[in-house]
Write a sequence for this structure.
């Protein structure tokens, strides 16, 4: 038991060390700016545009559900504008900046890990290295930067659509009037909350893309291991997002 | 010329290379042969730096003298790697790129050529491997033999001084294998490259092998040419060379039995 725990700790320390070495290698200056630019544009499309559909769908439904749940819980002496307030706060503080990245870690993270993992097992990464290409930087940097650039935009879209859907369902289902919802939406609004949300989204984007690239890059074996790397990428990303979320929230909101 | 001197490599307790020394001659097709698991792929990976040697030297010779590859820092190695072309066992073509883009990739990364010159060089290389009209296809859309030829075109596009081919004929039918072998020999002589072919295909060895190293139990107990290999008296090598019925027949005819 003691030996098992020691092995786990050793393995954890090994991965932490190798992950940071991977990050240092990833942030090496690209050799050809034009090649890097093209790769970045492709990743922006893959990570951003191709994720837009799921972000729109989830935000609309979640905004509407939060409005209905809030209306269900209030009544009597609690004013109806609370619905607008609750929808805004939930969407801005937690749903858009945390839950959207958690969901995207499943889509984007597994995609990155399996893409790089497949390149590893089919010797494409070896081919890059033999040519003299810095493989980590070439493969990981465009993905990390694309994630960091595009995630905040996706989250802003999620915030706007979620609040909009909350307003629409409130009026359509007669939960509150539009003026009540608008009043609640504006009450005690702090720009700082949006900055906090965008900051943590950026950190989560960096975690998802770098952790997934790391797991993909160090895949060894065959197709089975590529699948395992994808799973690990998602699980570790989600765990790290949860821990980081707690730390950032404690530091910035208390 | 590439020289490996007293190269040791182990994975944990398992010793794979136990003081291997070999030289690979320029302008010739050098073979590394041996049974599966004998250490020939590990030796090749040590030669190109995909694996670090535990002990020993790998030296690349060039106009600027001998360069100790094992002692170089990663950035210094990159300069040597621009002189290396490698054909991988599975081709290792980039799935997301077309044939043309695959061949152009090393030029895009390292050559200071304008787009027209790059295009011309890519077309030259594709025509050299008889795939001049296949540039628009993706690797998944072409056959295994064509993929190997594209990979060969990519490995020569930078006019390498050193060419490595890892099991170039694996998974290919005999006719396509002969096409690949012939290309390797012709390109070696055309570009005066130091070519290192890793294989256990005796047809290739006899057909194009000029300088052959036999790897056995982590060592190289025999070195010679394709004529000498048929008469070698090392038991392990005899077992390897005459493993197939076809080669046993060749031996009988050779001995007049």
């Amino acid at each position: 038991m003691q030996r098992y725990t020691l092995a786990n700790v050793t393995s954890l320390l090994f991965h932490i060390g190798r992950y940071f070495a991977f990050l240092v290698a990833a942030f090496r200056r690209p050799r050809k700016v034009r090649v890097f630019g093209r790769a970045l544009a492709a990743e922006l499309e893959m990570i951003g545009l191709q994720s837009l559909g799921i972000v729109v769908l989830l935000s609309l439904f979640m905004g509407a559900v939060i409005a209905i749940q809030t209306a269900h819980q209030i009544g009597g002496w609690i004013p109806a504008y609370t619905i607008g307030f609750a929808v805004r706060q939930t969407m801005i503080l937690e749903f858009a900046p945390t839950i959207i990245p958690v969901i995207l870690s499943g889509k984007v993270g597994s995609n990155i890990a399996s893409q790089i993992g497949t390149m590893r097992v089919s010797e494409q990464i070896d081919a890059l290295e033999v040519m003299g290409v810095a493989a980590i930087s070439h493969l990981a940097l465009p993905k990390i930067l694309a994630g960091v650039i595009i995630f905040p935009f996706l989250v802003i879209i999620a915030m706007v659509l979620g609040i909009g859907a909350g307003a629409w369902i409130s009026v359509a289902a007669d939960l509150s009037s539009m003026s009540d919802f608008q009043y609640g939406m504006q009450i005690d609004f702090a720009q700082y909350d949006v900055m906090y949300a965008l900051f943590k989204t950026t950190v989560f984007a960096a975690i998802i893309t770098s952790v997934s690239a790391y797991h993909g890059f160090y895949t060894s074996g065959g197709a089975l291991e590529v699948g395992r790397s994808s799973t690990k990428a998602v699980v570790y990303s989600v765990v790290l997002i949860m821990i980081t979320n707690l730390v950032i929230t404690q530091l910035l909101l208390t | 010329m590439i020289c490996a001197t007293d190269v040791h490599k182990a994975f944990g307790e398992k010793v794979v290379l136990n003081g291997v020394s070999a030289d690979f001659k320029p302008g010739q097709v050098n073979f590394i042969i041996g049974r599966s698991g004998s250490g020939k792929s590990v030796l090749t990976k040590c030669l190109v730096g995909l694996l670090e040697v535990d002990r020993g030297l790998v030296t690349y010779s060039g106009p600027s003298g001998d360069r100790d590859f094992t002692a170089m820092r990663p950035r210094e190695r990159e300069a040597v790697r621009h002189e290396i072309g490698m054909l991988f066992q599975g081709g290792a073509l980039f799935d997301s790129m077309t044939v043309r883009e695959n061949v152009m990739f090393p030029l895009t990364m390292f050559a200071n050529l304008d787009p027209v010159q790059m295009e011309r060089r890519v077309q030259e290389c594709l025509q050299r491997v008889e795939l001049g009209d296949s540039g628009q296809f993706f690797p998944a859309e072409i056959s295994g033999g064509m993929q190997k030829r594209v990979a060969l075109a990519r490995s020569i596009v930078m006019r390498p001084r050193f060419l490595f081919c890892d099991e170039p004929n694996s998974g290919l039918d005999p006719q396509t294998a002969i096409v690949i072998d012939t290309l390797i020999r012709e390109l070696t002589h055309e570009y005066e490259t130091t070519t290192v072919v890793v294989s256990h295909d005796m047809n290739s060895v006899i057909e194009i092998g000029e300088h052959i190293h036999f790897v056995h139990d982590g060592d190289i107990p025999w070195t010679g040419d394709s004529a000498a290999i048929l008469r070698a008296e090392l038991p392990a090598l005899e077992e390897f060379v005459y493993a197939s019925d076809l080669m046993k027949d060749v031996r009988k005819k050779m001995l007049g039995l």
About this structure: Residues 2-253 of chain A form one domain.
